[in-house]
Amino acid sequence: MYKNSKVAVIIAAAGRGRRLGTSVPKQYLKIGGEYVIAKTIKAFEAIDEIDYIFVVTNEDYKETCAQIVADCGFCKMEGIVGGGSRRQDSVYNALQEINARKPGVSMVLIHDGARPFVEEEVIRNVLKETENTGAAVACVAMKNSVRVMEPGMQASKSVDRTEYYSVQTPQGFRKSMLIDAYDQAYDDDFEGTDDASIVERVGYDIAIVDGDYGNIKITTKEDLPMESRVGTGFDVHQLTEGRKLILGGVEIPFERGLLGHSDADVLTHAVMDALLGAACLGDIGRHFPDSDMQYKGISSLTLLEKVRKMLEENFYNIGNIDVTLIAQRPKISPYIDEMRDNLAAALELDKSRINIKGTTTEKLGFTGREEGIACEAVCSIYR
Fold it and tell me: Rounded distance, CA 123 to CA 146, Å?
């Protein structure tokens, strides 16, 4: 409660995030091991003056959202609302839910689910000014020069950037104003660019409060914070009669092959585990268990392609891969270039980023006795 006013927050998270180019909406990606939507909710959960939180998400992700909320133990969550075809439809759905379930609410904040870096000070700025004036929007001054192209004109012209602001969220409103503005927007078939544009259209003034340049909305992959990681992978397979020897996707002439559920490509397996480990995505046993018959005899390069897609979904790029194969025999030097080609193709990576080398244990241990082959891989990834 803020100065005797009940406050509800609508987190608009129903978008598909197509501009980001992933199969998963941006609000359900992870940053630093935490879901974007969870980081956003947490920012408002921490504000004592906020009473209720409603999340609007698309129908396909309502269960996912509910599970994230449950896992995080958020106390102020009051509802997960199905979204509409447009952002303003989604917000309106949540507004109706607030009116039905929490009629005592008198102030509503609306925030983008894909703005997970909002600071407490910004939220409090918007709360304070909403209580004072009825409608307030977080904004930041324009840093760059601004030009405008008027309709029908062939040339642009410069404008005074000090008169312009970049609009952010949260945006705060008295609930009665918001409902009035939305009802009129639907009556007139008007679509606003944001909630403030809908409210100002019916004659209400919008106050500007200080936002934060760090309060970015994740829209394209360039908006994600940069980070780099390192991973290691290690795998061992037993040599046995009656199996082909596949290393790095290359069939190598040898009297024995490696035992395993798939093609037992120990080199590719080590690379897969290194990549999964760097991205904190588990290991190959978790994703491709040897109890699953769909992976029996499968090419490990096919599995490597699946690992590449997992990294892409989490916006990771591969920096480099360094592989050490440990075997007394056979010598792999004649096949290294082909192995690098295979790995590079599966990972859609330039082969100059992949190094493969072989070594022996000077006839010591199980590899020295030719009982099996081991492989170690190290990789770097970044986003």
Answer: 28
Strands 77-82 and 52-57: parallel
Contact 59, 66 (CB under 8 A): no
CA-based max dimension of the chain: 85
Strands, sheet with 105-112, edge to edge from the N-terminal-most edge strand: 77-82, 52-57, 6-13, 105-112, 165-174, 135-141, 207-210
Over the range 127-146, which residues count as b (16 or more CB within 10 Å of their CB) and which as e? bbbbbeebbbbbbbeeeeee
Mark whether 154 and 100 lie in a shared domain: yes
Start-end of H helices in 192-296:
195-201, 266-278, 284-287
In the chain, how many domains are there? Answer: 2
φ/ψ of residue 133, rounded to 5: -115, -20
pLDDT in tens, 135-173: 999 999 999 999 998 887 778 989 999 999 999 999 999
The number of C-alpha atoms within 13 Å of 69 and in the hemisphere containing its C-beta is 20
Quote the pTM value: 0.72
Say yes or no: 216 and 282 in one domain: no
